[in-house]
Each structure stands twice: as C-alpha cells, then as structure tokens.
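User: I've been trying to design a sequence by hand for this structure and keep getting stuck. Would you show me what you'd pick, starting by listing the structure so we're on the same page?

Assistant: Good idea, let's start from the same input. This is the structure you sent:
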C-alpha cells in the first residue's frame, strides 16, 4: 500500500504544502485538492475570526485547511477513536492551537453542543443518510449568516436551506449552503 495514498496536503494558508498522514478506516476519503481549492475560493482565502465545525472530520483535510487560513477556532468531531488519535497527532505536528478534536458521534455532538459556528463542514460517509439527519439539527449551532459546506452522493431534500454555490467532482455533489431567510426580501 502506498504511503502517499494515506496523506492529505494542505493547499493554502500558514500550513500550505504540509503533508498529513491519516489511517486506513472504512469510508474515510479526504476531500480532493481541487474541490478544497474551489471551496476556499468561494469562502475567501482567509477565515480570520471564524468559528468552524468539522463534523465527520476523517482525515481532517477541511478542518486543518480552515485552521491554516486562520480560523479562530476549529472543532473536529470524529467518531472513530483511531482516526481521532491521528487528528490529534496532526494537530500537534502543526502546532495548531486553534484546533480541538472531539471523539464523539456527530449527531450526539450536535444535540449536546452549546456553541455557535460561522462555518460547518459536512462530509459524512459516502451514500449514508447522515446528511438528512444532520441538516435539521444544525440551526441550533449556527451563528447568524453561517455557511455550511456539504458533500453527498446526491442532494437530499434541503427544506430550510438554499444552495449558494455548488459543483460536482466525479460522483460527489458538493456545495455551500445557507439557511433560507423567508424575510430576507422584506
């Protein structure tokens, strides 16, 4: 097995070009460089002052990318203890003070969370129904004007959400979501 296969490269910011290892784990597939580049072009290259939540953190590609771009705080939630230990090791390798790793199921985390986030990354296991379960729980942890990045095999019903930007890479749909604001036209 190729060592390069289990590495993710940070593409921008303070940790640019750093290679981070991650373990083999079922369903673990980092967001490709090209998709991350598109996402951070949408968001802007600097995330100064933002509180970010990376649910289903996996390799940490999205969360470490946000920390690299100076997010104030990045909470990475990962259910697998083995994968979470890798995230903690990479946090230490980068000396990423703004990153916190939480070992917990994403649904349980959202139900117990009392923080507010400006940006949430949702990259659940491919072809799972977790996106449909998570989206209704998110408003309770979102700051005003928060944005949500999501990846899915296909878009679920997005009641209460609007797609701000979207793209497709192979079989994966990805996009930036915002909450519907029925009163926004007033």
């Amino acid at each position: 097995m190729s060592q390069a296969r289990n590495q993710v490269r940070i593409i921008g910011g303070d940790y640019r070009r750093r290679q981070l290892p991650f373990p083999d784990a079922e369903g673990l597939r980092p967001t490709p460089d090209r998709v991350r580049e598109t996402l951070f072009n949408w968001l802007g290259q600097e995330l100064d002052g933002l509180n970010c939540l990376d649910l289903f953190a996996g390799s940490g590609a999205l969360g470490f990318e946000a920390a690299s771009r100076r997010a104030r705080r990045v909470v990475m939630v990962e259910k697998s203890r083995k994968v979470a230990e890798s995230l903690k090791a990479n946090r230490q390798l980068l000396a990423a003070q703004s990153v916190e790793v939480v070992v917990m199921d994403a649904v349980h985390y959202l139900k117990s969370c009392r923080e507010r986030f400006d940006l949430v990354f949702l990259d659940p296991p491919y072809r799972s129904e977790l996106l449909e379960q998570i989206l209704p729980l998110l408003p309770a942890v979102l700051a005003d004007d928060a944005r949500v990045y999501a990846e899915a095999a296909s878009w679920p019903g997005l009641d209460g959400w609007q797609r701000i930007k979207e793209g497709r890479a192979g079989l994966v749909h990805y996009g930036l979501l915002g909450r519907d604001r029925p009163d926004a036209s007033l």
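That's my pick for every position. To get oriented when you compare it with your attempt: The domain at 7-179 is CATH 3.40.50.150 (Rossmann fold). The chain has five helices and nine strands.
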